[in-house]
């Protein structure tokens, strides 16, 4: 019987690459994202990639919006059986603090709160699997610590592009490590995918996009190659700690210097922020 993977953010970019890679390995994939039209095309790619696999995996789509944590809770509640959770939802902008309908910054909602909520809600189901795994694809091993987690956890007073990026990566390290300690049969990882040729940055001003696209074409890794590397990273994880994974699916260094002292408080604060959806 094939493994079942939920790939969040599967309707574009790196999530697309990972979904097709999983299909080629015989994994059944639940694609979660905002576009049913995009998902339908990717499901056909998954079927083609798995055409020689026996038994045939299955592919389904579930609509979800990472800006709306109620839809994240609903997604988690709709999953009856799961082996692997892979989260790639995200955005790249230079905007300031931009609140969602839940009152959270858009970037942090996608990069942190929606991921924390999914990983927390689905960990009990993953623990029922003989091979439960969680992989958050963001910035493992390449971000700096966010040292204002005590005084300005949500970045309402000192928001910047750098602080948003550092806090997102830092918070992912922390909550994944805490979940790994609480669920010792499930493997948890935080990966940095590197520079990948996708539609990354669609929310940025047109001038910046015009500068980024040629660089992606010249130097960016193919999203399907990235998918292969992320699959290798997923399969190489160990229990009991957060696994930091680099762009080639290998061990990507350690956590930040303030990780140990901060992780418990970060985990508690995330739980408090998300408690109405828990």
Write a structural description:
This protein is of the alpha/beta class. The chain contains eight helices and nine strands. The protein has one domain (4-277): Rossmann fold (3-Layer(aba) Sandwich). A seven-stranded parallel sheet has the order 3-2-1-4-5-6-9, sandwiched between helices. A two-stranded parallel sheet has the order 7-8. α1 (13-24) packs parallel to α2 (36-49) and α1 (13-24) packs across α7. The radius of gyration is 17 Å and the shape is globular. The two termini are 31 Å apart. The relative contact order is 0.15. InterPro entries: NAD(P)-bd_dom_sf, SDR_fam, Sec_Metab_Biosynth_Oxidored. This is NAD(P)-binding protein. It comes from Triparma laevis f. longispina. Keywords: Oxidoreductase.
| Percent in helix | 40-55%
Helix/strand-derived category reads alpha/beta
By CATH, the superfamily comes out as NAD(P)-binding Rossmann-like Domain
Strand content: 5-15%
The backbone outline, from C-alpha atoms, is globular
How many strand segments? 9
Q: Output the CATH class name.
A: Alpha Beta
Q: Which strands sit side by side, in order, in the main sheet?
A: 3-2-1-4-5-6-9
Q: What is the averaged pLDDT score?
A: 92
State the CATH architecture.
3-Layer(aba) Sandwich
User: How is the main sheet built?
Assistant: 7 strands, parallel
End-to-end CA span: 31 Å
The SSE order reads EHEHEHEHEHEEHEHEH
Report Rg. Answer: 17 Å
Low-confidence stretches: none
Q: How many individual domains?
A: 1
Number of continuous helical runs: 8
CATH topology (fold) name: Rossmann fold
